[in-house]
């Protein structure tokens, strides 16, 4: 009986601590990789980048040449090299920033920059995985539909579009505190001459040479 009471008391304590943690809204921030998306979007297609916004920062997955974390953070809706499209609310979680930091570092060990692949393991796969682990839900299917089609028809895609790399050594910084925003809007963007010239660079190396992208350090596993 005493053991049952102790177990019940511990469970009640955990529930009380969980209830005392404020809820945090989780968003999916979606970006266009090309202005052509303005036309393709209405047909259910498009080439998109995405990141998960939680606790006031946005987290995504990018490529580099090293067997280390490719998970990075930026200010929400400002991922360099892409055209912000909209934010989609995905649900709320009760996870303190410090706990989320540990959670993200553990997850970063599964997403090394040198494993990035546009078809099989891209930024949208990371967003979907992170969303599923946090909320139990998946991101909207249209965000990563091109990768699904590419998996069936990868032979039709050039190798340069199947594997992306960023010639940049990751630098690691700390995760910030909480901030929430819930509006979904499409931002207007007028194509310029530089759009076409930079398109390949944006698609193949979205974080190359960018200084305000901070990679998240991964949890180090020690083997005996």
From TrEMBL:
Keyword Hydrolase on entry: yes
GO biological process: protein deubiquitination; proteolysis
One GO MF term: deubiquitinase activity
Tagged with keyword ATP-binding: no
Location of the PPPDE domain: 24-161
UniProt xrefs under SMART domains: DUF862
InterPro entries, per the entry: PPPDE_dom, PPPDE_sf
Matches recorded under Pfam families: Peptidase_C97
Keywords: Hydrolase, Protease
Domain of life: Eukaryota
Family membership: Belongs to the DeSI family.
Name of the protein in question: PPPDE domain-containing protein
Organism: Kalanchoe fedtschenkoi (Lavender scallops)
């Amino acid at each position: 009986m005493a053991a049952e009471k102790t177990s019940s008391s511990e469970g009640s304590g955990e529930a009380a601590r969980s209830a005392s943690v404020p809820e945090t809204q989780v968003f999916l921030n979606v970006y266009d990789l090309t202005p052509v998306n303005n036309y393709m979007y209405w047909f259910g297609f498009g080439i998109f980048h995405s990141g998960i916004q939680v606790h006031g920062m946005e987290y995504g997955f990018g490529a580099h040449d090293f067997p280390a974390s490719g998970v990075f953070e930026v200010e929400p809706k400002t991922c360099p090299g892409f055209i912000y499209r909209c934010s989609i609310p995905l649900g709320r979680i009760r996870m303190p920033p410090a706990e989320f930091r540990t959670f993200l570092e553990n997850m970063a060990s599964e997403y090394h920059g040198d494993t990035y692949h546009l078809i099989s393991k891209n930024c949208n796969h990371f967003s979907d995985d992170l969303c599923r682990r946090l909320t139990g839900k998946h991101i909207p299917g249209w965000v990563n539909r091109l990768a699904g089609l590419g998996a069936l028809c990868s032979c039709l895609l050039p190798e340069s579009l199947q594997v992306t790399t960023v010639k940049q050594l990751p630098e690691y910084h700390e995760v910030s505190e909480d901030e929430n925003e819930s509006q979904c809007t499409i931002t207007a963007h007028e194509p310029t001459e530089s759009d076409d010239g930079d398109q390949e660079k944006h698609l193949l190396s979205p974080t190359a040479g960018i200084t305000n992208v901070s990679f998240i350090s991964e949890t180090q596993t020690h083997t005996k």
